[in-house]
């Protein structure tokens, strides 16, 4: 301590703090962002925020912010911290840089230190000057500062110095402690961290500035996989050229406004709606600090897309905004004064940019949906082509549909399918025509089409199922007559759904077929029973299905079973050895007759199941297929209860059930 007792005073009317609007800093993020800004200006490279909410007594909770910046001398505490509106950009004006690191200075107004009062009664300061190594410690109490009546503007309020000593060996920097907090509940780390990070456009590495919260780095949580388009990267080349834009590795584009001022920007469109209001829209940063919370450049109407803005999140970096002669950033640092002539020019630029991006986004989304339709729907192009000049109408209607922003790609492809089908069947032509020719598809039109298209899909599916059931009947007849000639086998190969709806997605596998043939010729070619078999290899994705059909009427014996197992073992080995084939799941079916005629067979068949190998009789197979398809038909009917056309579709269930029961 020095001989003379040091003194600090506050030389302004206490109520001024209220007038400055500390209530604007009621969110912990807003308040703490001001403390962090001061640390940046003080050339700190490390800021540690610590919450202590351990006590059950809320009044004991504290928030401590420690920086390793330049700190302040006792004199500086008086002249800078304890004065209102101290202008820290005195010497060079608005473009002033920080002392050590030459950073663009964030502070300008000289009021930020009071932001802590937005969430706390006491603000404690302990600071060690880098220059003099002296330590100074004091605390401000908003209650006593506010007691303006007892202390008028002419009198100064004395602030007790808790500790002051010159020449310490303490590390330089400042600790701000907020206590007696005015927060309702404990602040959540993750949410706070994200929210604080979004107040700054700081790159911790490049800018040498780390912020941590309770030991963890403060970073924005961004889901890069959720981004559908990123601009300026995804701008058409012509746009890039016209803007004369320079895009950096982070995807930020630098361009000049008509008035010569420079801006850097990046605007993303997400696949899903951006729900967090802290990021929905475009944020403006100046001197690496938020200057305008997310907005749409005050655009009202006239946008190519209504829904588009809800998918958008981006930032514009414009340092000059904080270097104008006039301070255009509002007191609570959330809004810019767009009336200012230079800013109004940026607003115009921003509005034009958003309009342009929305229209690009909209047409790209439409395009993507059409592509999805093309890739998901078999032979979409050839079916459209087959319609000749009418194809244009259908495509036109589909393009209109694709433009409906709220329709997901999946919903759209479902509908696209139904619309094309309806047209092919000569249904809904008038409605589809109408849609193709309407300027914009309204909600009623869409609803009408949706309902109709759904019904058509149901009807079509029901009709298809009926056809399939009839085909199964045909197959049954042949089996009953014990004739399973090659043509029928080939037919099953082409239409595996005949065996089960589950196998509708399976297709005949040619590559593996060769391996199987090789395997068979090596061991089993002399076998009579297998000579007449159908070798069917089906695949779907990573799954492989091997089917052995034995002539109907031929009873199954242990020899057959053993050979079947041996055969699959060989194939299994060859196929798993050839990883390029990419199969990770192999199952086998042996279709034979009179499975349980011979003793011991049922146990052998049961044992095979462990290896995903099944023996099944022809009648069981047919009955199973029939049953599954009938259930499917019932399901369709259940979903279209009011559609007479669907309800009218029948198959002879009685015979089917009877057959299934006496297999
Ligand atoms: N952590 C700190 N380290 C060193 N000096 C600080 C620190 N915090 C505040 N100061 C000093 O106190 C002054 C006042 O801070 P305050 O935040 O009120 O105003 P400002 O940063 O100049 O402007 P603004 O109100 O725009 O933030 C700062 O200019 C700075 O000189
Ligand atoms: Mg400040």
List keywords for this structure.
alpha+beta; Heat Shock Protein 90; 4 domains; 8-stranded mixed beta sheet; 7-stranded mixed beta sheet; 20 helices; 19% strand; elongated; disordered C terminus; binds adenosine-5'-triphosphate; binds magnesium ion
**Ligands bound, unique:** adenosine-5'-triphosphate, magnesium ion
CATH topology of the largest domain: Heat Shock Protein 90
> DSSP strand (E) fraction?
15-25%
Rg from C-alpha positions? 38 Å
The gross shape turns out to be elongated
Helix content: 25-40%
Strand order of the largest sheet: 7-5-4-8-3-2-9-10
Number of domains: 4
Which architecture of the largest domain per CATH? 2-Layer Sandwich
The CATH H-level superfamily of the largest domain is Histidine kinase-like ATPase, C-terminal domain
Distance between the termini: 104 Å
- Report the total helices: 20
Number of strands: 22
Describe this structure in words.
The protein has four domains: 210 residues, Histidine kinase-like ATPase, C-terminal domain (Heat Shock Protein 90), CATH 3.30.565; 129 residues, no CATH class; 92 residues, no CATH class; 193 residues, no CATH class. α8 packs across α9, α9 runs antiparallel to α10 and α12 runs antiparallel to α18. The protein is an alpha+beta fold and 663 residues long. It is elongated. It contains 20 helices and 22 strands. An eight-stranded mixed β-sheet has the order 7-5-4-8-3-2-9-10. Magnesium ion binds next to α2.
């Amino acid at each position: 301590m020095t001989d003379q007792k040091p003194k600090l005073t506050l030389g302004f009317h206490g109520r001024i703090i209220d007038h400055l609007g500390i209530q604007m800093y009621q969110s912990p993020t807003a308040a703490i962002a001001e403390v962090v800004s001061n640390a940046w200006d003080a050339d700190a490279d490390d800021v540690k925020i610590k919450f202590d909410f351990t006590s059950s007594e809320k009044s004991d909770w504290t928030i401590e912010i420690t920086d390793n910046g330049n700190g302040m001398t006792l004199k500086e505490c008086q002249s800078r911290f304890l004065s209102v509106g101290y202008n820290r950009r005195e010497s060079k004006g608005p473009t002033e840089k920080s002392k050590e690191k030459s950073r663009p200075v964030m502070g300008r107004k000289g009021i930020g230190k009071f932001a802590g009062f937005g969430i706390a009664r006491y603000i404690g300061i302990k600071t060690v000057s880098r220059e003099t190594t002296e330590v100074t410690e004091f605390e401000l109490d908003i209650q006593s500062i506010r007691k303006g009546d007892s202390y008028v503007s002419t009198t100064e309020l004395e602030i007790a110095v808790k500790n002051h000593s010159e020449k310490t060996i303490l590390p330089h920097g400042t600790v701000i402690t907020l206590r007696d907090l005015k927060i309702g509940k404990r602040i959540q780390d993750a949410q706070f961290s994200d929210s604080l990070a979004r107040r700054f456009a700081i790159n911790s590495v490049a800018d040498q500035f780390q912020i941590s919260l309770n030991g963890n780095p403060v970073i924005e949580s961004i889901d890069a996989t959720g981004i559908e388009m990123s601009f300026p990267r995804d701008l058409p080349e012509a746009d890039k050229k016209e803007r004369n834009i320079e895009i950096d590795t982070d995807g930020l584009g630098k361009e000049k406004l008509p008035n010569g001022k420079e801006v850097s920007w990046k605007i993303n469109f997400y696949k899903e709606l951006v729900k967090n209001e802290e990021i929905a829209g475009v944020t403006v940063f100046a001197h690496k600090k938020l200057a305008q919370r997310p907005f749409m450049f005050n655009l009202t109407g006239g946008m190519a897309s209504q829904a588009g803005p809800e998918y958008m999140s981006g930032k514009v970096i414009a340092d000059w905004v904080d270097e104008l002669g006039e301070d255009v950033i509002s007191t609570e640092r959330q809004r810019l004064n767009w009336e200012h002539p230079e800013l109004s020019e940026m607003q115009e630029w921003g509005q034009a940019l958003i309009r342009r991006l929305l229209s690009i986004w909209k047409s790209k989304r439409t395009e993507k949906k059409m592509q999805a339709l093309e890739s998901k729907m078999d032979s979409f192009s050839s079916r459209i082509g087959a319609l000749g000049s009418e194809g244009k109408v259908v495509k036109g209607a589909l393009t209109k549909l694709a433009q409906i922003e709220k329709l997901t790609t999946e919903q759209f492809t479902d509908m696209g399918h139904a619309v094309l089908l309806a047209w092919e069947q000569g249904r809904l032509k008038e409605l589809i025509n109408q849609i193709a020719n309407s300027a914009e598809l309204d909600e009623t039109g869409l609803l009408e089409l949706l309902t109709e298209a759904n019904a058509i899909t149901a009807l079509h599916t029901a009709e298809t199922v009926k056809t399939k059931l009839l085909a199964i009947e045909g197959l049954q007849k042949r089996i009953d007559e014990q004739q399973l000639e090659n043509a029928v086998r080939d037919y099953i190969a082409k239409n595996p759904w005949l065996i089960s709806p589950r196998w509708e997605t399976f297709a005949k596998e040619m590559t593996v077929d060769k391996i199987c043939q090789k395997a068979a010729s090596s061991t089993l070619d002399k076998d009579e029973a297998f000579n007449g078999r159908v070798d069917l290899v089906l695949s779907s994705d990573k799954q492989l299905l091997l089917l052995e059909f034995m002539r109907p009427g031929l009873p199954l014996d242990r020899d057959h079973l053993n050979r079947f197992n041996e055969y699959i073992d060989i194939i299994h080995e060859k196929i798993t050895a050839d990883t390029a084939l990419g199969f990770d799941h192999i199952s086998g079916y042996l279709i034979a007759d009179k499975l349980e005629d011979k003793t011991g067979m049922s146990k052998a068949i049961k044992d095979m199941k462990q290896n995903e190998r099944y023996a099944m009789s022809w009648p069981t197979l047919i009955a199973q297929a029939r049953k599954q398809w009938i259930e499917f038909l019932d399901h369709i009917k259940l979903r279209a209860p009011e559609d007479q056309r669907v309800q009218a579709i029948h198959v002879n269930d009685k015979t089917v059930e009877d057959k299934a029961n006496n297999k």
